[in-house]
Write a structure and sequence with these properties.
Distance between the termini of chain A: 51 Å
Largest sheet of chain C: 7 strands, mixed
Number of strands of chain C: 12
Largest sheet of chain A: 2 strands, antiparallel
CATH topology of chain A: ABC transporter involved in vitamin B12 uptake, BtuC
Shape of chain C: globular
Helix content of chain A: over 70%
Strand content of chain A: under 5%
CATH architecture of the largest domain in chain C: 3-Layer(aba) Sandwich
CATH superfamily of the largest domain in chain C: Response regulator
Bound molecules: adenosine-5'-triphosphate, magnesium ion
Number of helices of chain C: 13
CATH topology of the largest domain in chain C: Rossmann fold
Chains: A mainly alpha, B alpha/beta, C alpha/beta
Strand order of the largest sheet of chain A: 1-2
Strand order of the largest sheet of chain C: 7-6-8-9-10-11-12
Distance between the termini of chain C: 74 Å
Order of helices and strands of chain C: HEHEHEHEHEHEHEHEHEHEHHHEE
Oligomer: heterotrimer
Radius of gyration of chain A: 19 Å
Number of helices of chain A: 11
CATH class of chain A: Mainly Alpha
Structural class of chain C: alpha/beta
Largest interface: A-C, 38 and 36 residues
Shape of chain A: globular
Helix content of chain C: 40-55%
Strand content of chain C: 15-25%
Number of strands of chain A: 2
Radius of gyration of chain C: 24 Å
């Protein structure tokens, strides 16, 4: 139960990364998972090759992930002049392939061991039968922290407000003197950072390999979809719900578990078709 | 030194010459109007000035600085604000929030620090208070008190036009570009607008470039008028000169209802 | 006159098309000459399955040793490895290239059931023997494919043997299974059920897993609550890591028993952060430090000829998958022909090197029903629990 919720929170966290980019640039970033994968590999590299302490690896990885996001936006997304949505998606798919190829070339395709400094044998049982792991506590704490930060950031900071404005109306934002390109850089950097955190959580549960984020990305995307792709609290709730539903099915009908998320997506689509691409219209100024 | 000047501006969209060799000069603190039939290229001129389109040729000089090639945000920071023909507001935000966004360029504090994170007396807090004061003044001025905290998406068209005007004013611009501000307004609203524009010119000391189809308004408030058709100049001069120009009468005023 | 010209032109066109058609249908170049015999293998040298790429390199060691010892009846083996990145479409491409450009006498090994399936019929159509696929698939041998000779024990037999071991030797009654929801996992499930039926027992939990699933919390909880003392794992390495990590988190400590697919202990030990210790697996080869004289010989050869390669299970699996073709080539004699080698392959009986005993007949190309049972000890060491064990319930033999 709690574990399911924690996994859901992890999906939600990752979905937040997807949403931040979608909100500002209306691009579904299919390279999100691989950006997180790449950052997790950097952490792995620092930990296992340089054997630095975890906190140092963590800080460096965070910085790296921000730069990675900014760089990808700058190199691949920005030069695309007047791109169509499809064109942008194809670009992100290309970036995905590129990152996967690079990671495979640098670190090989074998699975790697990755762990967070959380003792797995310490668990808590506040209520009989409800086991809470360290991992789950860490996920909840980090998710709560990031949510709080995002809330304050979007509500009060100059850049956060600029981001919201850009998302609502890019032309108007520019005319207000908002440097929208900076907003995009920041959105990508920040999204990449959140993705990297979620990626490390996922890697510590499973293994680290160039393809390891594909599946979590699909689920996170589903979670994002539930949340309407726009609202950050919405996707966290979407993620949590998905974790719970999946866990429920995983326990009672394990055959169904892998597809419930996608069945629910289809149901959402039927009930609220104004999901994914409804927000797009070409604006003439 | 010229306050604001366009020289030989031209732009085409795939073969269509939307604006061709347009030049004019605008005196400081004057109202300069651009008129012409639909599709004659008026909005396109504004789009070039505010950096949304880059002219194929020509210069846009503001206090002798060429603005061609500047990004829209840079032009905004240079003191040129505008409104849009089709209203470009942040529609999922309140009137107040929209106007506060107009203050963006005047916010000094860093990108991360929000006012709330600092003490009451901090620089950020003082700045916030100042920004709110200015915005409140604009709200009073444009009589937007009653809709202050409403979401823009729920407002009637005429009010939204005013919010957009208010937001442009919040930038405290030197030059204000107004693209058909009276479109969609009733007679009463138009009269108010007329007065406000005049007040903006005088009280706020702003140079105004105005696109309008309402001839009464144009003739009443403009210092100079630039009449164009199919991307090219017909005539430029005082309202009286333009009004009597035969081609203007034929191309524009001759039509019964030019909107 | 005009008309005639047209006729000639179209005649030429038709001839051209015909000649192109016959050219592509021409028999591929022969797989051997007086000096060499060409043998190929596909396998993932890059991409997600690259860890299994060592199989193809293991076969290379065998052929290098054979060549060092003078080749076979005066001919050297020329060996080709092609990287298919574990992608069946690539497998088709590289196999065609080898067959049609180089001329292949036989193929050996070849990782991946799907990759093998993609070229199985093509190889048969070209009458090229394929020995020791590095995958166990019922469809390879049933119905009989006259050109395909399987060495790899079937997962169903293995699960059967492992289940017997759990019940008879470990004396455990409550057995659960975590199986990948595909042919591999389902074969394991079948085998376990088949064996348990003879004890009038059933599985306490049957949990399917999608190969890509990254979260097994609920499935593991289900296993835990079923009270399983032993859990069979017919999953891929990543799923095994997730299962072991998740179990450690919720304090579930059954005896894990897995298919030979996870028998590369150093790898599994590393990627589970040591949680693999104590896991029992089936095995299709001897333990790495076996005293078997042939193991000693190949181990030394590997140190000499390919020192940077890790002496792992999948590496020397490449030897045992390819061994029988060497035996058959020797039997066929200097007067080499495809028919002679096919005949020799079909009469291989109780042939054993470092793998299980292989027997092939005209009617049966599944070479063995035997596995060993091994256990991962401290520091990824191999502990042999039980030597070659055959499955008395193997249905395919009857
Ligand atoms: N982005 C664009 N792409 C292609 N053509 C354009 C673009 N923007 C403007 N045009 C064309 O340029 C010409 C001038 O348009 P513009 O919007 O400047 O006219 P206008 O004078 O503002 O008309 P209205 O009175 O209807 O607002 C029109 O033919 C219009 O279709
Ligand atoms: Mg216009």
């Amino acid at each position: 139960m709690v574990e399911g919720l924690a996994i859901g929170a992890c999906y939600g966290l990752f979905a937040t990364a997807v949403v931040i980019i979608y909100k500002t640039s209306e691009v579904v970033n299919f390279a999100q998972g691989e950006m997180a994968m790449f950052s997790a590999f950097v952490a792995f590299h620092i930990l296992s090759v340089y054997e630095w302490p975890f906190w140092a690896a963590f800080v460096i990885t965070m910085i790296f992930s921000i730069l990675l996001g900014i760089l990808i936006e700058y190199l691949f997304l920005r030069p695309a002049k007047h791109p169509s949505i499809l064109g942008l998606i194809v670009i992100t798919l290309g970036v995905e392939m590129l990152l996967m190829g690079l990671a495979g070339w640098k670190w090989g395709a074998e699975q790697k061991y990755f762990s967070l400094p959380l003792n797995p044998s310490v668990t808590y049982e506040p209520v009989k039968g409800m086991i809470v792991t360290n991992w789950a506590i860490a996920v909840f704490a980090v998710t709560a922290f990031i949510m709080l930060f995002l809330y304050v950031f979007f509500k009060y900071s100059k850049l956060g407000i600029a981001m919201r404005a850009t998302q609502q109306n890019k032309h108007a934002a520019k005319i207000m003197g908002i440097r929208t390109e900076r907003v995009f850089s920041f959105a990508w950097g920040f999204s990449s950072l959140i993705g990297a955190v979620a990626g490390m959580f996922f890697a510590s549960r499973a293994t680290l390999d160039p393809a390891f984020m594909m599946e979590p990305f699909m689920r996170a995307f589903a979670a994002a979809y539930w949340g309407g792709l726009m609202s950050i609290p919405g996707v966290i709730i979407g993620g949590g719900l998905m974790g719970l539903i999946e866990n429920f099915f995983g326990y009672y009908w394990p055959h169904w578990k892998p597809i419930v998320a996608f069945i629910v997506i289809i149901l959402v689509l039927c009930v609220r078709p104004s999901g994914l691409f409804a927000k797009h219209f070409v604006k003439k100024v | 030194m010229d306050h604001f000047k366009c020289e030989n501006l031209s732009i085409s969209f795939g073969g269509l010459k939307a604006v061709n060799n347009v030049s004019f000069r605008v005196e400081k603190n004057s109202i300069f109007s651009i008129i012409g039939p639909n599709g004659s290229g008026k909005t396109t001129i504004f789009n070039m000035i505010s950096g949304i389109y880059k002219p194929d040729q020509g210069r846009i000089l503001c206090e002798s600085q060429d603005l061609v090639g500047f990004t829209p945000d840079r032009i905004a920071r240079r003191g040129i604000a505008r409104t849009f023909q089709n209203i470009e507001l942040f529609s999922n935000a309140t009137v107040m929030d929209n106007l506060l966004l107009g203050r963006h360029i005047h916010m000094q504090t860093g990108i991360f620090t929000g006012a709330c994170l600092w003490g009451r007396r901090s620089k950020a807090a003082r700045e916030e208070i100042l920004n709110r004061e200015i915005v409140e003044r604009i709200i009073d001025f444009l009589d937007l008190q009653s809709v202050r905290d409403q979401y823009v998406a729920n407002l009637p068209y005429g009010k939204r036009k005013l919010v957009e005007l208010g937001r442009a004013l919040a930038l405290e611009p030197n030059i204000l570009l107004l693209d058909e501000p009276s479109a969609g307004m009733n007679t009463e609203e138009k009269q108010d607008l007329n007065i406000w524009i005049k007040d903006i010119q005088i009280d706020f000391k702003v140079t105004i470039l105005l696109i309008e189809h309402d001839m009464n308004m144009i003739m009443g408030i403009s210092d100079r008028i630039y009449a164009m058709s199919q991307g090219e100049k017909i005539v430029e001069g005082t309202p009286r000169e333009v009004q009597s120009h035969p081609e203007v009468i034929r191309a524009y005023l001759g039509e019964e209802h030019p909107c | 006159m005009m008309f005639k010209k047209k006729m000639v032109m179209s005649l030429i066109a038709v001839l051209a098309i015909l000649s192109v058609a016959t050219m592509t249908q021409a028999a591929p170049p022969a797989g051997f000459d007086d000096n060499e015999i060409r043998i190929g293998q596909w396998g993932p040298q890059t991409g997600p399955a690259a860890p299994w790429g060592s199989v193809a390199r293991g076969s290379k060691l065998l052929f290098d040793v054979v060549n060092e010892e003078g080749g076979i009846n005066g001919r050297k083996i020329k060996y080709f490895i092609r990287d298919d990145m574990y992608n069946p479409a690539q497998t088709v491409a590289v196999v065609k290239e080898l067959v049609e450009r180089q001329g292949m006498f036989a193929f050996v090994g070849g990782v991946g059931a799907a990759c093998g399936m993609a070229v199985k019929d093509y190889l048969a159509a070209n009458k090229i023997p394929w020995v020791g696929p590095s995958a166990a698939d019922q469809d390879f041998v049933n119905p009989l494919n006259p050109y395909l000779f399987a060495v790899y024990p079937l997962y169903r037999d293995e699960a059967n043997i492992l289940t017997k071991y759990i019940v008879d030797k470990l004396k455990m009654k409550k057995i659960g299974i975590l199986y990948q929801n595909d042919a591999y996992g389902k074969d394991g499930l079948e085998g376990a059920k088949e064996r348990l039926a003879t004890y009038k027992m059933g599985l306490v939990a049957e949990i399917p897993v999608e190969p890509t699933e990254k979260d097994l919390a609920s499935q593991i909880l289900r296993l835990k609550n079923s009270g399983a003392e032993a859990v069979l794992m017919y999953v891929n390495p990543t799923a095994a890591v997730i299962a072991l990590k998740t179990s450690a988190n919720v304090g579930f400590k059954p005896q894990w028993v897995s298919a030979n697919t996870l028998s590369d202990y150093p790898l599994m030990f590393k990627i589970t952060g040591g949680l693999f210790e104590g896991v029992i697996t089936g095995a299709f080869g001897e333990i790495p430090d076996s005293k078997n004289p042939l193991m000693v010989k190949y181990r030394d050869a590997a140190k000499r000829l390919n020192p940077q390669e890790r002496w792992g299970t999948f590496y020397y699996a490449g030897i045992l998958f390819a061994d029988p073709i060497v035996e058959a080539l020797k039997k066929a004699g200097r007067n080499l022909s495809a028919d002679a080698v096919m005949k020799a392959l079909n009469s291989i009986k109780d042939y054993q090197t470092i793998g299980p005993k292989i027997t092939w007949t005209e009617k049966q190309h599944q070479g063995t029903d035997s596995v060993m049972i091994q256990k991962c000890g401290p520091n990824a060491s191999y502990i042999q629990l039980q030597g070659w064990t055959s499955n008395d319930l193997a249905t395919w033999k009857k």
